Amino acid sequence: MATENQDPIQIAADKYRSFLHEEARNTEWRHGGPPIYDDVNKLFEEGRTKEWPKGSLEEVVQNALKSWEMELSHKTRIQDFRTINPEKFKLIVNGREGLSAEETLKLGSYNALLKSSMPEEFKYYKADEESFESSHDAFRVALPRGFAWEVISVYSGPPAIAFKFRHWGYFEGPFKGHAPTGELVQFYGIGILNVDESLRAEDVEIYYDPTELFARLLKGPLIAGSEHTDSASTLKCPFNK
C-alpha cells in the first residue's frame, strides 16, 4: 500500500514494461497518469505457455513489445515515446501500407491492427468508423481481464528481429451486440521488428489471421435490444459457418 508521501512514479513500476514510470512527471498520459497492469499481468502469468530466462533475447523482445504497446495505448504525444524512432517508424499489418507513428497513435492499436480490405458486407468490425476510445472500450468490455501477449519464439536477433507471438483473453463481456461465452479467445501471429542501434523500433510488421479472433467474439448469440442487433443481423459474417 502506498503512503501519502510515496513517489507516485515508483507506485507505477511494472516488471514487464520499461518507461512506464521513468520521467512520468513530464509525460502526457491519456488517462491522467501511468496505467496499472495488475490484472493483465496476472492473466499473462497464469496463461503463458513460455517463461523465458531473465535477460534472454526472447524476454527482451517480449518486454520491448509490451512497452511499445503501453506507450501506444496510454501516451498521447509521440515526443514522449521511448520505444520507437519517430522519424522512421512504420507499422505494417498483413502487408497493408505502412502507418507512420502519428497515424498509428491517432488510430490506436486495435484500429491499426484490425483495418481490413474486405468488402463492406463482410466487415463486422469497421475500423474506419471507430475512434481510439471506442475501439479500446469495445475490447476492454469484452475481455475484462485484459488481452495478454507473449512471445512464442524468436527466430533472429537485432537489427531485424523475427518472432512468433500469441494474444489471448477471456470473452466475459458483450462484444458488438454478441453475448459473452466465457471462452478463451486467442490468435497467433508472426512479427518482424527492425530496430536502430538504441533498440528503438524503426518499423514493425505484423502478420496474423483476424478470423481466429472474430470467430470467437462473434460466437455468442445476439443480445435482444442491443444497439448493435439490427446492424449485426444484416451482416454476412464469413467467420460463423
From TrEMBL:
Descriptive protein name: Pathogen-related protein
Q: Which InterPro entries match?
A: NTF2-like_dom_sf, Pathogen-related_defense
Q: Which Gene3D superfamilies match?
A: 3.10.450.50
Species this protein is from: Fraxinus pennsylvanica
